[in-house]
Every structure is written in structure tokens, then in C-alpha cells.
What does this fold into?
Amino acid sequence: MQFLGEYSCKIDAKGRFRLPAALLAQYPAAAVEGFVLNRGFESCLTLYPQAAWQSITEEMQQLNLYQRQNRQFVRYFFRGATPLQLDKQQRLLLPKNLLDYAQIAKELVLFAYFNRIEIWAKSVYDNLLEEEPGDFADLAESVMGKIEQNSDV
It folds into this structure.
């Protein structure tokens, strides 16, 4: 599954927002299977389709929980994880503790990539983008230059 796009949404007083149809169309099975919402990195929330969440948890089950660092990571990663289902109006209800964590009040941005959708407070997301690296080409070389390229590319 692959999500792609950036979407602005408004959140209602109950903590609900409508998942954009263009985003839902990219993976319609998510409407049936549901999602898992979790704390993300850099103060965002991360929304995973149930199948993606299952894959992540299977990967984490391979960690050696006799190692303290692994236990700490697992505890923090799963802290706040919440199953979600779309309602009849294609809305998701975000728990208050996770809204507070991500500083989301009225406006949010959905940033979709790979098998996840990051949910950002609009103001936090806008500030993050203002801090773009000075030389994106250097960052691209540093990150992507380590991946072996297919000779056909």
C-alpha cells in the first residue's frame, strides 16, 4: 500500500476530522479494516492502516525484550496507540491525549507517504517546513546515496 499527498483539514469540537476522499481512494480497504493511531516523531501523530500496523508489530516482536533499550523503545512506541474506525461520514475521532501531544486544535495537515499518514498541527507543520535544510541536494546525497541503485536507472 502506498499513500501520497498533503491535505489540509479542519477538526471539529469533538476532535473529529473527515478523511479526504482522494486519500481514502488510495487505499479503500482501510475504510473496512480500520486504522491505528500512534504518537509519531517530531510531535506529530501517525495513522497506520491496520495491515501496516500489523506488519510493524510483527517486526517489533523480533526485538530482544531482555535488553533494556528495546523495552524502553517498545513502551514508548506503543504508548498512546489507539485503534480507530471511520464513521459513516468518513470521519476519524482523535483521542484528546493524542491531540494534546501533537498540539492540534482546529487545523491539521495530513502528510501521506509510504504506508502511513502523519497528522500535524498546521502551525507545527508550517514551522517544520520553514526549517528546510540549507542544501537539499547534500541531504539527498547523504541519505539516498547509501542505497544501491539498479543499473537500469
In short: The two ends are 23 Å apart (CA to CA).
